[in-house]
Amino acid sequence: MNKKLYVGNLLYEVTEDDLKTLFGAAGTVVSASIIRYQDTGRSKGFGFVEMDTEEAAQKAVDTLNGTDNKGRKLVVSEARPPKPRTDFNRE
């Protein structure tokens, strides 16, 4: 079963391919995505990586969390489910 990880404190220049390469050392990366602002397309500084197994995900957390990546200390943890959003524009 695939396991999704949160990756925070990324430089704005980091790409999905960079994440795949970085996390590939821990195991097989199923997908990698950088979260971006809708209007500008600029990175928000965090993303998600999906690993193919629970063991690979745990290895990625253990080996990458707190490590330096291009001058920034990565934050790597298990992704939490999104909180329900409230639509404030409704009348």
TrEMBL record:
Parts of the chain that traverse the membrane: none
Keywords, in A-Z order: RNA-binding
Residue stretches making up the RRM domain: 3-81
UniProt feature, compositional bias: Basic and acidic residues: 80-91
Pfam families registered for this protein in UniProt: RRM_1
InterPro entries noted in UniProt: Nucleotide-bd_a/b_plait_sf (IPR012677), RBD_domain_sf (IPR035979), RRM2_NsCP33-like (IPR048289), RRM_dom (IPR000504), SLIRP/GR-RBP-like (IPR052462)
Ranges for region Disordered: 65-91
GO molecular function: RNA binding
Name the UniProt record assigns to this protein: RNA-binding protein
Gene source species: Candidatus Roizmanbacteria bacterium RIFCSPLOWO2_01_FULL_35_13
